[in-house]
Amino acid sequence: MAVARLFWVMAIAGALIWAAVIGTLIYATRERRRVQSEHAAGLLILWGGAIIPALLLGLLLGYALWLMPDIRPWSAPGEPAGLRIEVEGEQFWWRVRYHPADGPPVDAANEIRLPVGERVEFTLTSSDVIHSFWIPVLGGKMDMIPGRTNRLTLRAAKTGTYRGPCTEFCGTSHALMAFSVVVMEPDAFRDWLADEARPSPGAGAPGGELFIANGCPACHTVRGTEATGAVGPDLSHVGSRETLAAGIMPVDVEAIASFISKPDAIKPGAQMPAFGMLPEADIAAIAAYLEGLK
Ligand code: CUA
């Protein structure tokens, strides 16, 4: 909101100053033809010669600086730090890490949950190529650049579930790289985050042994198990997410099984190797296990 207000004030004031300067110039040139008017020369110095424009632009600068506390993406010294969420773009998914003000970080992927009405700071980066983070409904958009951390602050006004696409062409599956944003009541959000930090109740279910025996832990983490890989998306509580594979499929056993057998056919360029050579029953068991991680 503050940015939109600043934009309109700047645009309208800029247009008025431009019109006044050009108007004075035209007036002064015409006057000059008739008489060497001192009046026109004076006007020219005042308007064309930038004394008044400089003063007005100074006022606008003051206004912008005065608005800065509302639009700066970082917390001021002494201001209580709020929730910070680190998001890293990967080909072609999102690594998400919540940094609550009071507690250890919590890892997740491909879905972002936010408390309604609170200022949340995002730190955005990329591990491979340039991606871009955008939640159209909330207005924030910022590039994710390898080797650099960009900051963005958002405050969601309404609860609901929204979609965020990647908005920088980043490879063959750029169009298949999205995430969901779930805006929750602050108390519900805090309960959810506390649950998210704990191992899923489904972590001991059958199918988990197959997940481990087939090498999935080399890339994936499931909190509370020996799976602690960090190459691919964190799968703790994957069954409770809105979507699978970065916004492209529902989270059900069938979709998970098909992604395990042929990830590259569903998401061209995905780093995950295909596991189609496993017995169908094993794939189904692993899929059921993952779907049960709520
Ligand atoms: Cu990531 Cu486009």
Automatic annotation (TrEMBL):
Chain ranges of the Cytochrome c domain: 202-294
GO cellular component, one term: membrane
Superkingdom: Bacteria
Keywords: Copper, Electron transport, Heme, Iron, Membrane, Metal-binding, Respiratory chain, Transmembrane, Transmembrane helix, Transport
Location, primary (coarse class): membrane
Transmembrane segments: 6-28, 40-66
CDD domains: CuRO_CcO_Caa3_II
Membrane in keyword set: yes
One Pfam family here: COX2
Compartment list: Membrane
Catalysed reactions listed for this entry: 4 Fe(II)-[cytochrome c] + O2 + 8 H(+)(in) = 4 Fe(III)-[cytochrome c] + 2 H2O + 4 H(+)(out)
Membrane topology: Multi-pass membrane protein
Domain spans labelled Cytochrome oxidase subunit II copper A binding: 80-195
GO biological process: ATP synthesis coupled electron transport
Molecular function as annotated in GO: copper ion binding; cytochrome-c oxidase activity; heme binding; oxidoreductase activity
Signal peptide residue numbers: none
Keyword Transport: yes
Function: Subunits I and II form the functional core of the enzyme complex. Electrons originating in cytochrome c are transferred via heme a and Cu(A) to the binuclear center formed by heme a3 and Cu(B).
Listed NCBIfam families: CoxB
Family note: Belongs to the cytochrome c oxidase subunit 2 family.
Protein name: Cytochrome aa3 subunit 2
Source organism (scientific name): Mesorhizobium alhagi CCNWXJ12-2
